[in-house]
């Protein structure tokens, strides 16, 4: 056919096929090459008769659509260099192996992903293998699978029983599919690709239910939020997950440690400690091969914990007001990989008491902890692990968490607590603690997330700091408690200059966001979240203390691994390698520096020399990522020897801020209990215990900490201050 005749062609006809292929027998046609014929229309009535077609080439035409026609034998389709804007038609090509779509201006990568999802037989697109596309699909599936499973549990788990009929089963599954197809359930799915994947996940979950692999009454799947609940049946029958509640009497206190009849000793008891010269986040390292000791070879004997409470600080230091004594009551190992009680490699990075819904100034006795793949909720009254969420990503390691209390969007004005957790995967998971359902995932950071904090006055505003040197401000929204629908959004991305944030604090009297970083401390004006600047407004130069006790403003850059908010606008900070903890008032520092000078570090960043209102004696150590906990009257911080230092800061934060060079000793030091004898002695040696974080309840009744050797330690205010022996049954 000559060029002019090609240009005059607009529609595919039988006559055209005859001229090109020499036959009108469409049913036996195996290949049709019509490249560069100026075609604008492909009638479905013609294509549907091609029962044996394997190859179609309609490249370099003027096609805008490909007809909705089923071609079961088609293996290769070339529609490159047209004006196609949808590839939904591939769902009708069940044996398609190669697809060429390049040169269509409206076809994007997302369309190619859709093609792979709708046509599983595809092997190549535009001549390329599909490995990268399959990786993208897997990533999106990981994002949504837990949420689909969690919502299935919440909405339909109770309806599935072993004796339900096939009709009842199909009805329940169909209802759930209808809900997921609606815009309400997954409104945050912002692309057609995600919606397709969610639809497929619903089918997968339904098939798992059908096959009995999911939601059986006697099985809890380790990879779903449902499995996060500890099996009461297992706890009652197996020593592997049982903890003994101590029976207190006048002469003895009893503590409990998660024990197992089988001891497994790691070859390497602890991972190397980081130093300021090589500061990398301490990882949960591999345990290597484990050796077993048979249950029948063990001889059980009482485990005696002798409390050593002699002071370890210099008596020449200024005294702070006293605080009550505390007794260790529960030591739990609930973050172990594979529920192995001898796992002393997993690190418990953070712990935090749940806020009271009725009074935001108070806490409950429920303690949240995170480490490894696991988040636990522990009742400090009983020492029981009430709920446990394990992430499906085996490479996840949770480093941080934050609580918030939100008012639900209902007529009853109910409130509920929400928990945000994040870590190595760079994704932030939102968890509803009453069901321990992970209902949303916030994606925005490129590297691991080190810190999270919620705005004190705006409970849905979340700040996250990451190793990618970004601080992201989110609005996490308020979930619908019926189906956990939620709309969240990213509000701003802040830049920490050449460093990454380790802790975030909002100081409300000065309306300032503080970031304790690997390299200095920075601040942003946060009085108007909508207008917050990308780069920080302030760089705070923290004090150093010379040997004679005089404090000076440091010009060296410090790693601020501890930062916490106190009342009345005060904050407390700790730097790696320093044996002094500084207490200072943010608003007063900004006011004083306004009067003194306005030297800028760079651009609009103003330097602020911090003059502390109090200096607290700590201990010299090079271990980093040790976080502090506070309530209105007390601050608690651990160290690299398992000790907890308690400081009564009530008077410090009530008085008028003024510079002070006096160094104050801790109000009390709680030393790591020394194990005199017993089967758990090998797991809790004092020299390997690093306290990663500590927290204190609002009334000071409980103190909790998480350690580097996979322990959650709960201390309770002593009923009397006499030294006592503790027996672990």
Automatic annotation (TrEMBL):
GO molecular function: chromatin binding
Main localization of the protein described in the UniProt heading: nucleus
Region (Disordered): 212-297
Domain Leucine-rich repeat and WD repeat-containing protein 1 LRR: 24-176
GO cellular component: centrosome; chromosome, telomeric region; kinetochore; nuclear origin of replication recognition complex
Each WD repeat, start to end: 442-476
Nucleus keyword on record: yes
This protein's UniProt keywords: Centromere, Chromatin regulator, Chromosome, Cytoplasm, Cytoskeleton, DNA replication, Kinetochore, Leucine-rich repeat, Nucleus, Repeat, Telomere, WD repeat
Leucine-rich repeat and WD repeat-containing protein 1 WD domain mapped to chain residues: 326-716
InterPro entries with a match to the protein in the record: Leu-rich_rpt, LRR_dom_sf, LRR_LRWD1_dom, LRWD1, WD40/YVTN_repeat-like_dom_sf, WD40_repeat_CS, WD40_repeat_dom_sf, WD40_rpt
PANTHER family: LEUCINE-RICH REPEAT AND WD REPEAT-CONTAINING PROTEIN 1, OPTICIN
Membership in a protein family: Belongs to the LRWD1 family.
Name this polypeptide is given: Leucine-rich repeat and WD repeat-containing protein 1
Organism of provenance: Magallana gigas
